[in-house]
């Protein structure tokens, strides 16, 4: 993966610095007053900072990963992003620690599915729209499970065992062909899309980057480990039915079994994962860390709210006959 094209003063300045030898950064350009969820420049800068902890960039020296001045910039970007999330997503009401699993389930079940993108893809979307959806999701699914794996060394006991059980399935039980990221690559190839890692970073808008950036922010900070577990539980709780719809929608559009395998795998696996995530992982973590039980619910709220905002953005553009992707190569 190479650095994507800049989208504003911060990324123009930052990317010019990153392609040189690591050094102390000067003060960054001022942040835009725009909402961070719609700020392409801020979200792309955060994405680039985080990506150095995953696969990195061909044109960026790996020594930048732990450069103190770059970490300082990342912290300022995160502070703005996190503060906005706190404004948009108020903390869920406090509940007794032992009621955390039930509160998670109720939080998810209270979400309105009326504007669900899954229903549209199942019944109505054309092939170009389905391909666009896959492009959006590729930034996460090609590294699926990696953000949540950061939590493993930060847990102990039952919560750690439960997370490892979930992640082992995400990574195909040690078989490359069954890794969920590899199954998604097969879906991309079947749709005539470029399945290389990060190929569409230039095409996705700020809200798509924000969905992934929230995962990375929770994953890369030990203090956010409760939110990370709640985020994962929300993904598992909201996975089976939408993935069934994605599979049926792709079948309607001519997708064969190999193209749909990624979605079919999630229908089965996540029906089991949701029980492990809610009870064995989040429930056990809340009991062991009662002071962080609220973070678990907040992480889940962030997951479902950002996904709803992403779906609203895409559906609004599709409803007006426009593409949901940015103009560019790919």
UniProtKB/TrEMBL annotation:
InterPro entries: Haem_Oase-like_multi-hlx (IPR016084). It comes from the Bacteria. It holds the Pfam family Haem_oxygenas_2. This is Iron-containing redox enzyme family protein. It comes from Sphaerisporangium album. The lineage of its organism: Bacteria, Bacillati, Actinomycetota, Actinomycetes, Streptosporangiales.
